[in-house]
Design goal:
It contains seven helices and seven strands. With 218 residues, it is α/β, with parallel strands linked by helices. It has a single domain, classed as Vaccinia Virus protein VP39 (Rossmann fold). Strand 1, helix 3 and strand 2 form a beta-alpha-beta unit. Helix 4 runs parallel beside helix 5.
Length: 218
Protein backbone atom coordinates (compact mmCIF):
# COMPACT_ATOMS: atom_id res chain seq x y z
CA UNK A 1 0.00 0.00 0.00
CA UNK A 2 1.46 3.35 -0.99
CA UNK A 3 2.02 5.94 1.74
CA UNK A 4 2.48 8.66 -0.87
CA UNK A 5 6.17 9.28 -0.10
CA UNK A 6 7.22 9.53 -3.75
CA UNK A 7 4.28 11.71 -4.73
CA UNK A 8 5.03 14.10 -1.87
CA UNK A 9 8.70 14.20 -2.83
CA UNK A 10 7.74 15.02 -6.42
CA UNK A 11 5.42 17.85 -5.39
CA UNK A 12 8.05 19.35 -3.07
CA UNK A 13 10.94 18.93 -5.50
CA UNK A 14 12.67 22.20 -6.32
CA UNK A 15 16.23 21.07 -7.02
CA UNK A 16 16.55 18.90 -10.13
CA UNK A 17 14.21 18.41 -13.09
CA UNK A 18 11.86 15.50 -12.45
CA UNK A 19 9.30 14.44 -15.07
CA UNK A 20 6.83 11.64 -14.19
CA UNK A 21 3.24 10.64 -14.87
CA UNK A 22 1.47 10.99 -11.53
CA UNK A 23 -0.12 7.53 -11.57
CA UNK A 24 3.36 5.96 -11.70
CA UNK A 25 4.07 6.77 -8.05
CA UNK A 26 1.57 4.27 -6.66
CA UNK A 27 2.97 1.61 -9.00
CA UNK A 28 6.51 2.31 -7.84
CA UNK A 29 5.62 2.11 -4.16
CA UNK A 30 3.57 -1.06 -4.65
CA UNK A 31 6.59 -2.85 -6.09
CA UNK A 32 9.51 -1.03 -4.45
CA UNK A 33 8.42 -0.56 -0.82
CA UNK A 34 10.04 -3.79 0.37
CA UNK A 35 13.46 -2.40 -0.58
CA UNK A 36 13.24 0.75 1.56
CA UNK A 37 16.13 0.94 4.06
CA UNK A 38 17.52 -2.39 2.71
CA UNK A 39 20.42 -0.80 0.78
CA UNK A 40 19.24 -1.90 -2.68
CA UNK A 41 21.00 -1.29 -5.96
CA UNK A 42 18.77 0.38 -8.54
CA UNK A 43 19.64 0.94 -12.19
CA UNK A 44 17.66 3.60 -14.03
CA UNK A 45 17.94 3.87 -17.80
CA UNK A 46 17.45 7.52 -18.70
CA UNK A 47 18.86 10.26 -16.45
CA UNK A 48 17.57 13.44 -18.14
CA UNK A 49 17.60 16.20 -15.48
CA UNK A 50 18.86 13.96 -12.68
CA UNK A 51 15.78 14.43 -10.52
CA UNK A 52 14.67 10.83 -10.38
CA UNK A 53 18.10 9.62 -9.23
CA UNK A 54 17.87 11.98 -6.26
CA UNK A 55 14.31 10.84 -5.62
CA UNK A 56 15.35 7.19 -5.47
CA UNK A 57 18.18 8.01 -3.12
CA UNK A 58 15.76 9.80 -0.83
CA UNK A 59 13.17 7.01 -1.02
CA UNK A 60 15.38 3.96 -0.52
CA UNK A 61 17.44 5.50 2.24
CA UNK A 62 21.04 5.44 3.36
CA UNK A 63 23.29 2.91 1.67
CA UNK A 64 21.27 2.54 -1.55
CA UNK A 65 23.34 2.41 -4.72
CA UNK A 66 21.84 4.42 -7.58
CA UNK A 67 23.10 3.81 -11.13
CA UNK A 68 22.08 5.83 -14.15
CA UNK A 69 22.55 5.32 -17.90
CA UNK A 70 22.17 8.10 -20.45
CA UNK A 71 23.50 8.92 -23.90
CA UNK A 72 24.20 12.55 -22.97
CA UNK A 73 27.66 13.19 -21.46
CA UNK A 74 26.39 16.21 -19.51
CA UNK A 75 24.39 13.85 -17.30
CA UNK A 76 27.63 12.98 -15.47
CA UNK A 77 27.12 16.22 -13.52
CA UNK A 78 24.39 14.49 -11.48
CA UNK A 79 26.78 11.99 -9.95
CA UNK A 80 27.27 12.12 -6.19
CA UNK A 81 27.69 9.92 -3.16
CA UNK A 82 26.34 6.46 -4.06
CA UNK A 83 25.16 7.77 -7.44
CA UNK A 84 27.12 6.70 -10.52
CA UNK A 85 26.21 7.53 -14.10
CA UNK A 86 27.37 5.67 -17.20
CA UNK A 87 27.30 7.33 -20.60
CA UNK A 88 26.15 5.24 -23.53
CA UNK A 89 23.18 3.64 -25.24
CA UNK A 90 20.88 1.26 -23.43
CA UNK A 91 21.26 -1.28 -26.24
CA UNK A 92 25.07 -1.34 -25.93
CA UNK A 93 25.60 -4.86 -24.63
CA UNK A 94 29.22 -4.14 -23.75
CA UNK A 95 28.21 -1.19 -21.59
CA UNK A 96 25.46 -3.17 -19.86
CA UNK A 97 27.83 -6.07 -19.19
CA UNK A 98 30.44 -3.74 -17.72
CA UNK A 99 27.85 -2.26 -15.35
CA UNK A 100 26.75 -5.73 -14.26
CA UNK A 101 30.38 -6.71 -13.69
CA UNK A 102 30.83 -3.75 -11.36
CA UNK A 103 27.41 -4.17 -9.71
CA UNK A 104 26.73 -7.93 -9.73
CA UNK A 105 23.62 -7.61 -7.55
CA UNK A 106 21.04 -5.29 -9.09
CA UNK A 107 17.70 -5.30 -7.29
CA UNK A 108 15.68 -2.94 -9.46
CA UNK A 109 15.91 -1.93 -13.11
CA UNK A 110 13.77 0.96 -14.31
CA UNK A 111 13.72 1.52 -18.06
CA UNK A 112 12.86 5.17 -18.72
CA UNK A 113 15.24 5.49 -21.65
CA UNK A 114 14.70 5.99 -25.36
CA UNK A 115 11.37 4.08 -25.41
CA UNK A 116 12.40 2.67 -28.80
CA UNK A 117 11.22 -0.92 -29.16
CA UNK A 118 14.56 -2.49 -30.08
CA UNK A 119 16.30 -0.64 -27.24
CA UNK A 120 13.74 -1.73 -24.65
CA UNK A 121 13.94 -5.36 -25.72
CA UNK A 122 17.74 -5.40 -25.87
CA UNK A 123 18.07 -3.90 -22.38
CA UNK A 124 15.59 -6.43 -21.02
CA UNK A 125 17.29 -9.40 -22.65
CA UNK A 126 20.69 -8.43 -21.23
CA UNK A 127 19.69 -7.10 -17.81
CA UNK A 128 16.72 -9.19 -16.70
CA UNK A 129 18.78 -12.35 -16.09
CA UNK A 130 21.14 -10.26 -13.91
CA UNK A 131 18.40 -8.88 -11.64
CA UNK A 132 18.49 -10.41 -8.15
CA UNK A 133 16.19 -13.35 -7.42
CA UNK A 134 13.69 -11.17 -5.56
CA UNK A 135 14.17 -8.10 -7.73
CA UNK A 136 11.97 -6.05 -10.03
CA UNK A 137 12.24 -4.94 -13.65
CA UNK A 138 10.04 -2.00 -14.63
CA UNK A 139 9.49 -0.71 -18.17
CA UNK A 140 7.64 2.57 -18.24
CA UNK A 141 6.08 4.79 -20.89
CA UNK A 142 4.95 1.70 -22.78
CA UNK A 143 2.30 3.82 -24.50
CA UNK A 144 5.07 4.35 -27.07
CA UNK A 145 4.55 0.69 -28.01
CA UNK A 146 1.49 1.90 -29.92
CA UNK A 147 3.30 4.69 -31.80
CA UNK A 148 5.04 4.04 -35.10
CA UNK A 149 7.69 6.72 -34.52
CA UNK A 150 9.00 4.49 -31.70
CA UNK A 151 8.89 1.36 -33.92
CA UNK A 152 5.57 0.41 -32.36
CA UNK A 153 1.93 0.15 -33.39
CA UNK A 154 -1.11 -1.85 -32.32
CA UNK A 155 -0.28 -5.53 -32.70
CA UNK A 156 3.10 -4.85 -34.29
CA UNK A 157 5.19 -7.98 -33.61
CA UNK A 158 8.33 -6.00 -32.76
CA UNK A 159 6.75 -3.88 -30.04
CA UNK A 160 7.69 -4.35 -26.40
CA UNK A 161 4.03 -4.89 -25.48
CA UNK A 162 3.83 -7.86 -27.86
CA UNK A 163 7.16 -9.09 -26.45
CA UNK A 164 5.73 -8.85 -22.91
CA UNK A 165 2.49 -10.60 -23.94
CA UNK A 166 4.54 -13.56 -25.16
CA UNK A 167 6.20 -13.68 -21.75
CA UNK A 168 2.79 -14.54 -20.26
CA UNK A 169 2.92 -17.86 -22.11
CA UNK A 170 6.54 -18.32 -21.08
CA UNK A 171 5.76 -17.82 -17.37
CA UNK A 172 3.11 -20.57 -17.73
CA UNK A 173 5.25 -22.83 -19.91
CA UNK A 174 5.08 -25.80 -17.52
CA UNK A 175 1.34 -26.05 -18.21
CA UNK A 176 1.62 -25.78 -21.99
CA UNK A 177 2.20 -29.52 -22.60
CA UNK A 178 5.54 -28.68 -24.21
CA UNK A 179 4.04 -26.17 -26.63
CA UNK A 180 6.16 -23.49 -24.92
CA UNK A 181 9.71 -24.18 -23.79
CA UNK A 182 10.46 -23.89 -20.08
CA UNK A 183 13.20 -21.28 -19.74
CA UNK A 184 15.19 -19.53 -17.05
CA UNK A 185 12.58 -16.76 -17.29
CA UNK A 186 9.91 -19.33 -16.45
CA UNK A 187 11.82 -20.68 -13.48
CA UNK A 188 12.72 -17.28 -12.01
CA UNK A 189 9.67 -15.09 -12.66
CA UNK A 190 6.80 -14.78 -10.20
CA UNK A 191 4.52 -12.31 -11.96
CA UNK A 192 4.04 -9.83 -14.80
CA UNK A 193 1.88 -6.80 -14.04
CA UNK A 194 0.44 -4.64 -16.81
CA UNK A 195 -0.61 -1.08 -15.97
CA UNK A 196 -1.44 1.99 -18.02
CA UNK A 197 1.93 2.68 -19.71
CA UNK A 198 3.94 0.44 -17.35
CA UNK A 199 4.93 -3.25 -17.31
CA UNK A 200 6.44 -4.73 -14.14
CA UNK A 201 8.25 -8.07 -13.94
CA UNK A 202 8.62 -9.48 -10.42
CA UNK A 203 11.39 -12.02 -9.99
CA UNK A 204 11.07 -14.93 -7.58
CA UNK A 205 12.03 -18.56 -8.08
CA UNK A 206 8.98 -20.63 -8.95
CA UNK A 207 8.50 -23.37 -6.39
CA UNK A 208 6.96 -26.82 -6.31
CA UNK A 209 3.41 -26.81 -7.60
CA UNK A 210 1.02 -28.59 -5.26
CA UNK A 211 -2.70 -28.82 -5.99
CA UNK A 212 -4.17 -29.50 -2.56
CA UNK A 213 -7.72 -30.54 -1.77
CA UNK A 214 -9.58 -30.10 1.50
CA UNK A 215 -12.97 -31.62 2.24
CA UNK A 216 -15.29 -32.20 5.20
CA UNK A 217 -14.64 -35.32 7.26
CA UNK A 218 -17.14 -38.15 6.73
Amino acid sequence: MSDGHLHRYFLNNGEYRLHKWLHYFDIYERHFSRFVDKKPTILEIGVAGGGSLKMWQNYFGEGANIIGIDIKPECKQYEGENIEIFIGSQDDEGLLNSICAKYPKIDIVLDDGSHMMRHMKKSFEVLYPRVSDNGVYVVEDTHTCYWDEYEGGLGVPGSFIEFAKAKIDEINAVHSREAVQVTDFTRRTDSICFYDSVVVFEKRKQGLRQAAITAPML
